[in-house]
Structures are given as C-alpha cells and as structure tokens.
Amino acid sequence: MKKIPVGILGATGIVGQRFIQMLERHPWFEVSWLAASDRSEGRDYGDAARWRLKTPIPASVAKMRVSAAMPENAPKVIFAALDSGIAAELEPRFAEAGCAVISNSSALRMAKDVPLVIPEVNPDHIKLIECQSWRRKSGGFVVTNSNCSAMGLVLALAPLHKRFELETVMAVTMQAVSGAGYPGVASLDILGNVIPYIAKEEEKMEEETRKLLGTLNGAGVTLAPFKMSAQCNRVAVEDGHTESVSVKFKKKAQAAEILEAWAEFSGIPQVQKFPTAPEIPVRYVDAVDRPQPRFDVEFGGGMTTTVGRLRQCAVLDWKFTLLSHNTIRGAAGAALLNAELLKAEGYLE
Amino acid sequence: MKKIPVGILGATGIVGQRFIQMLERHPWFEVSWLAASDRSEGRDYGDAARWRLKTPIPASVAKMRVSAAMPENAPKVIFAALDSGIAAELEPRFAEAGCAVISNSSALRMAKDVPLVIPEVNPDHIKLIECQSWRRKSGGFVVTNSNCSAMGLVLALAPLHKRFELETVMAVTMQAVSGAGYPGVASLDILGNVIPYIAKEEEKMEEETRKLLGTLNGAGVTLAPFKMSAQCNRVAVEDGHTESVSVKFKKKAQAAEILEAWAEFSGIPQVQKFPTAPEIPVRYVDAVDRPQPRFDVEFGGGMTTTVGRLRQCAVLDWKFTLLSHNTIRGAAGAALLNAELLKAEGYLE
Amino acid sequence: MKKIPVGILGATGIVGQRFIQMLERHPWFEVSWLAASDRSEGRDYGDAARWRLKTPIPASVAKMRVSAAMPENAPKVIFAALDSGIAAELEPRFAEAGCAVISNSSALRMAKDVPLVIPEVNPDHIKLIECQSWRRKSGGFVVTNSNCSAMGLVLALAPLHKRFELETVMAVTMQAVSGAGYPGVASLDILGNVIPYIAKEEEKMEEETRKLLGTLNGAGVTLAPFKMSAQCNRVAVEDGHTESVSVKFKKKAQAAEILEAWAEFSGIPQVQKFPTAPEIPVRYVDAVDRPQPRFDVEFGGGMTTTVGRLRQCAVLDWKFTLLSHNTIRGAAGAALLNAELLKAEGYLE
Amino acid sequence: MKKIPVGILGATGIVGQRFIQMLERHPWFEVSWLAASDRSEGRDYGDAARWRLKTPIPASVAKMRVSAAMPENAPKVIFAALDSGIAAELEPRFAEAGCAVISNSSALRMAKDVPLVIPEVNPDHIKLIECQSWRRKSGGFVVTNSNCSAMGLVLALAPLHKRFELETVMAVTMQAVSGAGYPGVASLDILGNVIPYIAKEEEKMEEETRKLLGTLNGAGVTLAPFKMSAQCNRVAVEDGHTESVSVKFKKKAQAAEILEAWAEFSGIPQVQKFPTAPEIPVRYVDAVDRPQPRFDVEFGGGMTTTVGRLRQCAVLDWKFTLLSHNTIRGAAGAALLNAELLKAEGYLE
User: In percent, how much of chain C has pLDDT > 70?
Assistant: First the structure.
C-alpha cells in the first residue's frame, strides 16, 4: 500500500515535533511537507526546529525544507498544530483549498459544524464534516481533537456516561509544562511552585467535555446535559496531566460496575486495530498511590488514560484520579488517531 | 514578665525544628527542654537534629541536651510534634502528669473531649479541656491543632460559613513535601512527578474541617452539618499547600460579599495582638494566577492563608484557590497560636 | 542627608527588579527614573514589569512611569541592567551625556579604560574612570561589575591571591536559572536536567577574574598572571551559583592559613560600613556538605560568598566549593556596592 | 542454549531492580534466585520490593520468593548489589562457597587480587581471579565494576589514555539522585538545591579510575601513573551523571585526533557482540550544549557514555563534558557486561 503524504502546519513546535515522531514509522501516512512561521520558512527543518524530544529527529525530516504556511503546494492531508489565533486564519484557508485539516488547535473546536472527535468516544460526530461549506466547495474539511486536559477526562468518563449517565463532573488538574509548548513555562515560574491558572483552560475543559459526550443532532451536536466544573493548575512535571475527579451519576453505580465499564471500554480504533490505537484505552491501576506521571504516562505508547484510586465521594458519588499524556494522547496522538478514523471511513481518498 | 518555660516533644523533626525557630525570640515562652527518640537522647540538640531550616539553630538550643520523652523533669507546657502512634501513647502520659500538652499530632484530634482549635475560628472549643479526666486529676490537658491541609481551608471557609452557611465543600490539594517530615518523601518519588495519595490525609481533612467549624455542645463538638470531600496530592514544592476549592452555601452569596467576608475576618489573636498572630489571617490576592507558593507562602510570617481566583462554579456556587504554609500555619505556628490563646485565657498558670 | 536620585536602565528585567528591591530602603539613593524597552515605555512600572521577586513591588515604584531609554531626562546616576548588545549602544550614550553609569552588563567590562570593580577586591581600579573620554567631555563615566559566575570566585580568591599568589585556577560552575533572566531558561530545558553550556560564560569568567585580580597600570589593568580555566553548567536551582574550584599557589599554603585569609578578609565596604556591604564578605562553613543554595545563598543579605569543603587537591594544591547569590552579589548588589564606593570616593557629586 | 541461572544479592534496591529489568529478556542468563535483607526474606518479591522503574516488574520475578542471603541454595552466578558494609561480609562468603560473584559494591574493588573491570577497557584484568584464594579452594571468585561516577569517566578516558597517555585528570561531577539508592536523597535536600558532597565518592573516583586504567602486573594492578582529582556534587536529576572534565596528555593531541580516538573506540563486547554491549561505547555529540541527561542518558540502552563540548583548556590541554547512566552503565549494566565477559572467557562454566 502506498502511504498517504501528509503535511504538518506548525511543525517546529512541541506538538509539531510529536507529529513527526509519531509519524516516523507510520504504516499509512508519511510526512511530505512541513510548514512553520516565517522565521523558519526556507530553512532545513533540522536547523529551524529546536528539537525537544528524546528520540532523534528522523533523518529524512531533518533535511526537509520548511515551506510557507500556504495550501498551494501542500498535500491534501494536513495535521495542524497551530496557536489558536493563527489556526483561526489558516485552517479555513487549507480546508477551502480542499485539504483534510486534522487539527489540534482550539480555534474551531466549538464551531457548530466542526466535529470534535475522540475515535473511541464519538466517532459518529465526524459526519458533521458533510455540513461544512468547505466540504461542498472543494472537498476539504476540518476535524478537531480536544484540549489535552479534556482528553484524558473524556476517555475516563465515556464508558461511565454510557452506562450510568453523568449528572455532575468536577475536575481539578495538575498539568505538565509541555502543555504550554516551548519555551512555554519559564523555569523561574515553576521550580518548586504551582501555578493555579492556565489561560482559557477551564472554559475549554468544561465545554469540550460536554461536546465530546454530546449527541449528534442533524447539523450540530447537542451538548451532554451534565454539569461540569474544572479547575486547572500547572505543576513541575514534564509530561502528563494528572486530574482529581468527582462524578455523580443518574443511575446508581457500584465500584465493581465502574471498574467493569472501564475494563470493557473499547472502540473502533481497538476493533479495527488502528496503528496508533492503544490496546487498552482506559486502564485501571489497582494501587493506592497511582497513577503517577513517573510510572504511568508512557503506558500504551502514551495513548492510554490511566485511572486509579476509585473511592466514594462524600459529596458526589465517586471520585478517582486519572493521568493522560498531554502531548501524545492529548495532542499529536489524538489528531493522528482522528486521521486514522477518517482514513478508515474513507474521508481521505 | 518572666517567660514561661516550654518543652518540645519530637524536637528533632521538621515541625520540632519549626517550634524552635518560632520560639527563638518569643516574648512569652522560652524553650527549656527538648525530647526526642531514644536515638537522640543524651546528645546535644545541635548534634542530634539534622537541622533543615534556612535560619541557623539558635545557639542556646544547639547546646541543650536532648532529654528522654518522660514527663518527670519536663516543664509544664509541652509542644508535641510526634508521629501519631507515639503521640497516642505519650500525650496522655504528659497530660496525666499535669502538663498542658499543645499538640500538632493527629492522635487525639477527634477525641470527644479534646479541643481541636484555631484561635481565629473556634476559640470557645478550648473549654472542652474542663471535660478531660487529666484536667481533673492533675490539671494537665491536651489541646490540638488541625492537619496542615485542613488548616488553610478552615481559615478560608470560616468567615464564609459564618455568613452564608456552608452546604457543600470540595477540595483538591497539591501539598508540599515538607508536610511529610524529614527525610519524608524520597526525591526519586517526587522529581517531575505528582503522587495522588497521602495516607489518611483525605479522611483527616474531611472530619477535622467539620469539627473545627462545628459547635461546642456540652462535653463535645457537634460537627458542622455540611458535606465535605477531599482529594490529596503531593507535588514537588518545598513549603506551602495549594488547594482548589469549590463551595456551596445555604444563603446566596455575591462575589463582593465573599471578598468582604474574607477582608473583615479577624479573631481574638488579631484583637489581642498575640505575638504569633498574623495581622491579616485571610488575604485575597487580586491577580489572575495567584496564590503561588513561590510568592505567597511566607506572607504574614507564614501564618496568613492566601486566597485567590474567586469565580463562579458551574456545579456548586463558587470556586477559589488557597495557599497555606504547612509547617508554620499548618503545624508549629498553629500550636504556638493555640498556646498563646491558652495563655491569654489563663490556662497556663 | 538628601538622597541621590538614581535611574535604572533595563528596569523590568530580573536584575532591574533586584535593583528596585535593594534600593527600596537605601539610605543614600532613591529611584527616581526607570527605563526599559519600547514595549514598556509610557506604562506604569507595576503594569510593565512581570515582577518575579518574593517581596512586593515598592508602592512608589509601581506607580512610576517607565521612560524611554534616553539620557535627556534621566538622573545623573544610572544603574544599568541591559542585555549586552543594547548596553554597548546605550551605556556610552549615557556616559557621554554626563551620567555615572554603574553597569552590570558585560559590554564594556573588558574595555581598557573601563574599571571592572569589586569594592573589597580592587577599589583602586575606579581611577581608570579618569582615562575615559566621556569623563573629560561631560564628567560622565562607566563603571562595571563582573559576571555573576566570576563574582563569588573572585571574592574567594582575592584573599588567597594576596597572600599566596595564584598560579592556576580551575572552576566548574553549577549556575541558577535566575542568571538567565526572565523568562530565561525554559522549564522543559531544566526540569530533571543539567545544561552544560552557557553562552560566553566561560570566556567571561576566565578574563574577568584575571582583570579583577590584576593590577592598575597607568591607563589600563595588567591581568593577573595566573592561568584560569572555567566550565559552566546550568542546574535546576532558582538562585545561587555553586562552584567547584581547584587552585595552585606560588607560595606554600597550609589549610589553617587559607581559612585565616578568608576569615580576616575585609575591605573598604566593611571598614566604612557601606549600606549594602555584608559584614562578612567571605564566610567559611565548617560542615562536610556545605555550602548549599538552600541554606546559604541568603547569608549576608545575599552579599556574602560562602566557602566550604577546603581539602587538598591531588592535581593542584587545594580545592573547595563556593556559593554566591547570582542576582544579588552577582548583579544588582554588586553594582550597588560599586555605587556606594563611588559615592564614598566623591565620584557622584 | 540453556540459560545460566543467576541470583541477585540485594535484589530489592534500585540496582537490584535494574538487574531484574536488564535480565528480563537476557539470552544467556535467567534470574532464578533473589536475596535481600531479613525484612524481605520469605516474601514474594513483588511485595517485598518497592519497584521504582518505569517498566513493570517481570511477572515471573514478582512471584519469586525472596531467599535469605546465604549461599546454600543460591545458584553459582551471583550479581551483588549490596551496601558496602554488607558486601564486605557476604561477597567473600559466596565466593568461598564456589560462586562467581559479580559485584557492583565498593567493598572489594580496590583489593589487590580482585579485578575491577570494564570489558571495553581492561578485560585482561579478569585474570586476577586466578590469584584469589577462593578460586583455588572452591572455584568461586569476585569480580567488580567501578563506582557509577568513575565508569563514564574511564570509558571516555580509555581511548585517550591509550593514544596520548594521560598525565593529569580533573573531574567535577553533577550526579543524579538514583545513585544514592531508594529512598536515598530526601526531596527536601535536593529540590532547588545542589549538595556538594557524596560520602567517599571523590576517593573512589580517584583510585578506581587509576586502577581501571592501570596495568596488570602479576598478582595485582599497577595504578595508572597520572594525577587525578575529583569533586562530586549531587543535583536534582533522576538518572545520569554529568561530568566536567579537564585532561593533560604526555603526547600532543589535536581535537580531530581525540574525536577519532573516541569514534574508533571499541572492545571485546562490541567485537563479540555481547547482549548488553552498546554498539557505540563512547559517542561524541556535536552540539554546543550537549550532552544533557534529558536527551542523552538512554542512548545505547543506557550503556553508552556520551561526550561533548571538546575544547581547549587554558590550564591543562583539553576539557569536555560527559554523561553516563549511573544505574545502567554505572551499576547493573556494568556488572552484567562483566558477566558476559566472564561467560565468553569460560569463567562461568
């Protein structure tokens, strides 16, 4: 099978680097085009990017010339890892030019006709693509994945919501510095410190969670009807967002049933064995002090959400801790899994 | 005025060291006796203790001989900074011998006739002393302060509870490593990590908060009737527990009223100007990303609880972040303020 | 006595902030003018600066308007905390306009007629001022202090060089992130990491050390004739540069003599009791595992160099560890002490 | 080929865990026996050990019963990861009972008839085994590997010493906390700090380096005749010792020749393709700010020493930075490679 050429918008950033890393040996896709800001344009990627990952830059990518962020010579499948402001301008331009834009940016996530998708959770939402004007004009479209802090939460909630119906969700996050990109958080701000604020993060978590767990409804998505409150903090962790979560259900749930719901959770990516799919999308660790970023963040190649410490909540019903890799499952891996879903569903032909 | 001689049980630990530091220039009390485990007994304190504070050991204390932990030659006022198991055995023994035991340990906090006190919040609870059998026999008694994670929370909640009546409290903590004592948390466990578990901490927070905000009721305390749920995490911070809190009140509260309640909050320690009392027990910082351990933990000499980020909660009514110094206000300073209250009320004569 | 009005060039940076902090209650100087980059010009300092110190912004300074970095309305005494490139352009302009420019920048440190001064070490070097063309034209001049990594080293070496004559110096540094300014070092670069490189730092250390310990020689300074090699590393420490040093002397030195040389070391700032002078410029800590940033960096208000672990070196003669506060003694405090020397010597009239 | 059963003394510690991890899929050896302190004896390894590695405990090992540390039922090949004091007592006992004791402990490293070996550097030293009285009596023997701080240094020096003859070596280390075992360094001691002291580490580095590069001489090793001085520091890094090194040679060396010596360096493990051997024992990274623990410590499976920043030294001849994984190449991996050498040379039959 010939691989599908893909491009990366925002290729020099932390998420752009993760795309390159995860695509290095991908059986379906291959990187053929990289774009970044004007500063990088025309330079070799290896020179333009300040590579921050532990595996080396793939040699073929290092020598690739960074293109201008214009759709003219870009391939038809584009991964976008852009700052929100730039995404709002560029993503529609690429979609209009006929590209499948698989975006990690927040700019269009909540737009009525833009699917916000996690393949294990709401794969049917990709049908919204057909409502997009770009699609009708040029065949192009935009599909998005969620914010890194919503991702792990929704994966942990989805099997519970399906079975017990969520009434209330409260989540407090302790987020890794890589979520802020590079250079991102200054060391003087985080060494020995906690920053109890991440701009717009709480709003994104609250609305995206409800869209992801919402129901497709003609030309839009009806948000899931539960109440949701988030508090977001930054901590001195490199990779991995940890979240303390409390939930209340409409139906009574026993601990064993919750564990069972997580253990049985699986979706199209697992059934169809997508290349980037984790075998276990939600894993429960039965230890008193887990999950921990140090031990659990890489599980399932960084695509698994690890849950632990399920116990009763004196206010809502149940509380637990979850951990999700923020630049893999929460960013590049999420978009890649969306691309695999789109491919499987015939949207990339 | 002649200073009252005081002793310290558990003098070599992190909290014991804080006692010594805070008592160095105290106008009412002076350290005259130090006790620690068998290993330290008979040695000079300067040799026995692995001093971990930034100010040097007071010279007079460094040369003091560490005594056996027995009441025979101890002074009549004892600060106790013992592990819970040892405290359960030793504190009653000292009380029985006629000592005023001002304890930071958890062993007796929830005992029916033992006051759990924050002088700004529930000073009247010290009357429980009179219900103690030790008191009747020898004049001795035990008074306790709360767990370090409950302390900042209760200071922030007290003015709100008084004015709006709490119905529900949810708190997620990000706690400093000094809370685990020394050597305490291994560096391999916390560098670049979050540990979502502290043994018995959630239980302590939930019950102590309700006892502190409860009402004295003859020979005991009726717990405050709100629901409370806590989740406790350890982060790579040296000093200062940060907490993400959500609350629901019985009476409707406007943001301005909440800020006013905090601003106006004051108690006996402020009115009577106790030596260790902070001028401002609860301070609100009007900045989008505060409080932070780096900037706020030392405010008020570590005796002030700093609050910030008051905003509406989509589930309960309001949410906010608080920060409290865990080994000062949350331990040694708490006990010291209790001692000052006891002195002011005539219990140390 | 009326205070001398002073201005600060580069007032919003980390060192600029330290100047403001250290000048808050200074008996001789008062901040009357602040300048920073175009981005900050015209704004209130409190808005323009991202204040990163633990003490609050002095209220009077917070309300001060940030001026353009031009000498026209500036006071006659200027503290400069500029990046080297900008300093090379601005410092001469202010000197030419008649200002006493007391600079922390590296731009002019090694210029033949610019004194590089530590008041305890080479106060006589300020006479080079008279060789400056600015001085003759307008009365203005430039005086500099050393790089933060050279500062602690030279303070530790000066008493030894005087007594035993240095033949060889080798130093390896472990430098704090605040030395790189703000935002400076990205958290992703330093959490759990060591960066074995700081641009131009080794060269600065090597040449500045020899100029500071050199001898005034008409219109210039003859570098001290010892050999010097430096290796500079960045570590995850907030404030305080730790250095592992080995030295060889021309004259034989016993350990006791070295300790004596350090203990007796004192200079004009101590004799004349300059406001910013530490009582003890070089302190030896007699403990097997000190100095440590955690315990020793604030000693002497951050103006003392702490030395420890003196022991024989199997290659050179002696080795030891030193610690110096990089933004106080190594930057703002250094310049301030130079200003105090200039004032005492009549150069600020 | 049937695998050789091996035992691990000190199996629950950090290095013991690394042994288990590295032996999990080893083609020549399999873990058949585990011993640890009395506290662990008789328990399942999975319960007894506080597993601190990122990969999970091998299932077969988790269920293995921890034996008493006595040679009676132990296999004939023993990896020892014991504290020095206990090693001094137990290692001779196992050797006397006929075991091949492949030790990571420091107890016997400098003993006249005990080989201290790095297979790429001084494989001939294993012949010292024949001088051991245990060998003659029971066939048992002890072979040791070096301290973690000496290991990376010697690998980097060996090719240079062979070609240019070392005259002088100075090394300053910045060592990871895992080198101190678990719990090891308290978080309160290292967060935001540098500790300029590791007990006995400088002495070990200085003498072991010279023994490893020394020459076999009948019944002992003549230490290499260069001068060596080490200064050892602990920093807040999890894994990987970084070292700033300066060297002087007897023969003149050009930079290109040094790089060539490193590039060409290879030994028996590479030639015979030992399972644990890194393809590249010493790798030079041509980047201005490398090696760094974050990016380089895992190279070659943690068995490669990474070198960088080669530049002239104003005191000696050349200086450079090196990085070595302290619990892999510096401990368990070192012993394992020694075992592979012993196997290849017929000592394990």
Answer: 100
